[in-house]
Specification:
Layout (H helix, E strand, L loop, with lengths): L1 E9 L5 E11 L5 E2 L1 H10 L3 H18 L5 E5 L9 H13 L6 E6 L7 H14 L2 E7 L6 H6 L4 E4 L1 H4 L6 H16 L3 E4 L5 H9 L4 E2 L8 E2 H8 L2
Parallel strand pairs: 2-4, 4-5, 5-6, 6-7, 7-8, 8-9
Antiparallel strand pairs: 1-2, 1-9, 1-10, 2-3
This protein binds guanosine-5'-monophosphate (G) and manganese (II) ion (MN).
The site of manganese (II) ion (MN) has 4 residues, from loops.
Length: about 230
């Protein structure tokens, strides 16, 4: 298992503000699989648990060696969010490496609020009390109600790439992106657009006041050493 890193850029200055850590599985027959190709299996046989704790520790140890102003986001599957284990894994990793909690973001799916709402809300509050940031991944695909925005203890939303990719050719997708940015800002949430594949889209997102951009036009997910060579000072 290896963590790759994809840059997240400030939409106005176009400087790197951090990275999303993305898992890659090097299989015995020398293939490199992306999460979509192994996550379902990993979740089914519970190997997802040790692998996710490893990802948190690995990302935090990486942060300790990166400039103070950079952050890293780690994806957390909904089933691991509840309970005390994630709290102690996150706390221990930050303590051991003396990394400021605000530099670690946990990306969770919009669907976490579907069941167990009360438990999930208080768990997100607990995590935010430690000081880590909560980001809602793939936003727009999970059929949220408006009360979602009112109640959600989060810091950031990521607009799903299925809206971002066609936003210049589809008026409706453009309207969704624009509306979500405004709505999120009204609730003091930072907005990240994922799936930014060309500079024209990047420019439009900047015009629409999107805060952070991520996508192939800036870089693909890279092995840590390559990320550091290309994106660290
Ligand atoms: O939302 P989620 O965390 O699943 O999104 C991350 C995934 O999106 C990663 O697998 C990453 O490789 C992929 N990705 C990143 N940038 C782009 C992009 O610009 N276009 C597309 N189509 N996919 C992207
Ligand atoms: Mn993600």
């Amino acid at each position: 298992m290896e963590l790759y890193y994809q840059p997240k850029l400030h939409a106005g200055y176009r400087t790197v503000v951090g990275a999303e850590a993305l898992m890659r599985w090097h299989t015995p027959d020398r293939k490199v699989l992306v999460p979509g190709q192994f996550m379902a299996v990993a979740e089914h046989n519970e190997v997802i648990r040790p692998v996710t704790w490893w990802a948190i520790k690995s990302a935090v140890s990486r942060l300790a060696r990166w400039p103070e102003e950079l952050s890293i986001a780690v994806n957390i599957t909904p089933s691991l969010l509840l309970g005390d284990e994630i709290i102690s894994v996150v706390r221990d990793a930050l303590d051991i490496h003396m990394v400021k909690p605000k530099r670690l973001t946990l990306e969770v799916l919009e669907s976490i609020m579907v069941e167990n709402q009360e438990a999930m809300l208080s768990q997100l509050e607990r995590l935010r009390k430690i000081g880590v940031k909560i980001s809602i991944d793939d936003f727009g695909t999970g059929f949220s109600s408006l009360s979602y925005f009112r109640d959600l203890p989060a810091d950031e939303i990521k607009i799903d790439k299925s809206f971002v990719i066609p936003m210049l050719s589809s008026k409706k997708d453009h309207a969704i992106v624009k509306s979500v940015i405004d709505l999120a800002h009204n609730f003091s949430l930072q907005v990240v657009a994922e799936g930014v594949e060309d500079m024209e889209i990047a420019a439009r997102l900047t015009d629409l006041n999107c805060d952070v951009l991520q996508g192939y036009v800036f870089d693909r997910p890279l092995p840590a050493a390559d990320f550091e060579k290309r994106h660290l000072p």
